[in-house]
Design goal:
CATH topology: ph1033 like fold
Order of helices and strands: EHEEEHEEEHH
Mean pLDDT: 89
Low-confidence stretches: none
Length: about 150
């Protein structure tokens, strides 16, 4: 783990998706939402307050990414026919690790994805910390662009 490792934070709204992440070690992202690709070493998950009352409203876990495939939604979720032909990234990762303490969303700011760096991620206690411009952190923009 390096300070400039890139972390992608996604939102998990359904318990079924969280079970897949915990047990099967993958997460789906619509290609339309990330046309430039995933470009991250780690993935982390914000659990929605609506579905995860006890742990919801926070970034609760993370994992090292091990692979990325482009697949049709119907191939990922065979029982779900809605949007079945749309392309998704299947992000595969190691076992999830609980973030302790979790990163809270005290302001209840809505987001779909957040890109940050490892040094910010491990130090963060609230969502705004992930965007910190403090001098002791690596340059987030250059890192996000792969520079």
């Amino acid at each position: 783990m390096y300070a400039d490792d890139r972390v992608l934070i996604g939102v998990v709204k359904r318990k079924k998706d969280y079970q897949i992440a915990r047990q099967e070690h993958w997460y789906r992202i619509p290609q339309q939402r990330m046309p430039q690709g995933i470009n991250a070493e780690y993935i982390s998950f914000f659990l929605s307050r609506r579905s995860f009352r006890e742990r919801g409203g926070a970034i609760a876990c993370f994992a090292r990414i091990t692979g990325i495939e482009l697949v049709r939604r119907a191939d990922l979720l065979p029982g779900e026919t809605r949007r079945g032909q749309e392309l998704y990234y299947k992000v595969q990762f190691r076992q999830l690790v609980d973030k302790d303490p979790p990163i809270s969303n005290d302001s209840r700011r809505a987001f779909s994805f957040i890109r940050t760096t490892w040094d910010r991620f491990v130090a963060a206690t609230t969502i705004p910390d992930l965007y910190s411009r403090a001098e002791h952190y690596v340059d987030r923009v250059t890192t996000a662009l792969g520079g």
